[in-house]
Amino acid sequence: MDQNSLKKAVGLAAVEFIQPDTIVGIGTGSTINYFINSLSSIKFKIKGVVSSSEQSTNKLRNFGIKIINLNELKFLPLYIDSADEIDPQMCMIKGGGAALTSEKIIASVAEKFICIVDVSKKVNILGKFPVPIEVIGIARGFVTRELEKIGGIVKYRRGIITDHGNIILDIYNLSISNPILLEQHINSIPGVVTVGIFASRKADILLVSDHNGINTIIK
Ligand code: 5RP
């Protein structure tokens, strides 16, 4: 099976975790696009979804799936999203699709976070994939210099403006031995909106597709 087939398989498997009459938070990216395709087959069984990006919203609307504003909810039972990397503690790097800020907000509200990945995303230590950071434009130079102080090699993702009107920096060469501390440190730099390390809010359940099928790992 190629990677797209594995993404499709795990997207299909995630639908089994959705209860009737519920509201589901939805991530962003190619794995989630497969999940949305599968979700469309049970769209009349759910109340609606909270979307993490314009990209996912457009796809959901095309399927006629009801979009609910997060601010209308006091409780969200479930968030389903993929990741760029996930470690054995269920900490993740996310933001390859530049939707990390809304993803982190919805994941933080949700009672349960199910991460769905193909096996290539599983790592022992985070950091081979560059850490995306959403940054206020005027802070680009300052944030870059602050990240260089901790050994980061910073690349500006040219031509990308997030749904919130900000820029993305991708940080290479970070040593991520303690994801929670690094998340806190990068978050504290003025001008950083969101760092794509998801360690304070990890996944609760991981579905991994490989050539043998789907593995379910519960924290
Ligand atoms: C988007 C994300 C995605 O979950 C991550 O980039 C994985 O994407 P894909 O499913 O396309 O491999 O964090 O901001």
Automatic annotation (TrEMBL):
Annotated EC: 5.3.1.6
Quaternary structure, from the entry: Homodimer.
Keyword Isomerase assigned: yes
Gene3D superfamilies listed in its UniProt record: 3.30.70.260, 3.40.50.1360
Keyword Isomerase applies: yes
Gene: rpiA
A GO molecular-function descriptor: ribose-5-phosphate isomerase activity
Positions of substrate binding: T28, G29, S30, T31, D81, S82, A83, D84, K94, G95, G96, G97, K121
Organism the protein comes from: Candidatus Pantoea edessiphila
Protein name: Ribose-5-phosphate isomerase A
Function (record text): Catalyzes the reversible conversion of ribose-5-phosphate to ribulose 5-phosphate.
